[in-house]
Amino acid sequence: MAEPLKGNVLLVDDDPAVAKVLGALLAQAGLTVHTAKNGAEALTLLGQKPIDVVLSDVRMPGMSGLELLSEVTRLFPEVPIVLMTAHGTVPMAVEAMKAGAADFVLKPFDREEILFTVRKALLRAQGEAERPTLKTSTFVGDSTAMGQVEALLTRAASGTATVLLRGESGTGKELAAKALHDASPRHAGPFVKLHCAALPETLLESELFGYEKGAFTGAATRKPGRVELAGGGTLFLDEIGDITPHVQVKLLRLLQEREFERLGGTQTLKVDVRFVAATHRPLEEMVKKGEFREDLFYRLNVVPVWLPPLRARPEDIEPLARHFLEVHAKANGRQPFTLTPDALQALRSQPWPGNVRQLQNFMERLVVLSDGPTLTGEDVARELARQPGLMPLPAPSAPSSPLAPAAPAGATGSESKTLDSQRRETERQALLDALKRAGDNRTLAARLLGISRRTLYNKLEEHGLV
């Protein structure tokens, strides 16, 4: 018996009968179901509820499902959306996947098919909840290191060789993959991405290669995989170092022969796809330990591109910070911000272990939590003190009074705070500030704090703020 599903699903359909029947099915499977009659109502609920997956009809009056997909991808990038249609075709699937859909199902749908699809989307949501992506469309910065990366990507774009993007998390590997596709002769074709670490082996294989009707429980119709959907374009395999040996074997054949079979199928399919892979893991060490196939590594590592961490290009911190200030000021309806010299110095002094992604989130918090329009070193120091993984700036020491006796080394009492109590107090205040600045919009508050909405709800409950 399948394990009960857990999570919050937003069901968007203008047909009350469909919403009632499908809502009951999802609730019976263990899910918490929220319903909306149209796209506008769905966007409002997304800002108020901790939604894990959106399940939307394509054809609706007003905002269509594809238009809703565009808005969800822009405003709530961590929430996967599954589209339902009675007019589903492979071209529509390609259009939906290019626009960012997690999956699609055909009406009338089979019970096992819809639950199987929702389960995959929930697993994706859990795998990517703490994985915000860069919102810029081009590289920012004039460092020599990034200039070399751009030059290498430009040269690689004109060919069809497989590219392996290496580097720490947050350095912009997905951004580089999209830039490579956009600069290639395949730019008019689909750019399809698959996060390999978000799915277990069985689901990853079906997502990659697709499946035939009856291939397994829940496979009520034939379904094209990401390889098939990326035909004529680019397939981006993120976190390729996390795939299992079984999938490694099948992927090796795909890279060598450019052919595959759907799960449960016997027909060999040829495919015209440009492969781009990315990982932050040390593949060479994994090869030595027998955790990653050596022949697959060489097939992937045809054109290796290393993206440098932010600490290796400190000269890019200032242009990146100014860029993110401009982007987030516009997005939040704020007037332009300026950075004082001491604010810039404070930003440059940080190691930024989360790289560009962490700097981006930090600048968004500054935009929303500061009064502006001038951001000072004091503003930066205040937010640094609330940010895990960053170093708070040392506060200026107050002159000691000769009349004030020093506290004994072993002093205890109500005046003495433990480190844990101070941390909790600071964390609680950061939550309150974010909620206030976000106008109680919890999705926006989570983005300001650089955490997922699920983590925000857990923290609110922990501090009694629900």
TrEMBL record:
Keyword terms, alphabetized: ATP-binding, Nucleotide-binding, Phosphoprotein, Transcription, Transcription regulation
Positions with biased composition (Basic and acidic residues): 417-427
CDD domains the UniProt entry points to: AAA (cd00009)
Pfam families: AAA_lid_14, HTH_8, Response_reg, Sigma54_activat
Coiled coil: none
Residue ranges, compositional bias (Low complexity): 400-411
InterPro entries: AAA+_ATPase, AAA_lid_NorR, CheY-like_superfamily, Homeodomain-like_sf, HTH_Fis, P-loop_NTPase, Sig_transdc_resp-reg_receiver, Sigma_54_int
Domain Response regulatory residue range list: 8-122
Name of the protein in its database record: Sigma-54 dependent transcriptional regulator
Organism (species): Hyalangium rubrum
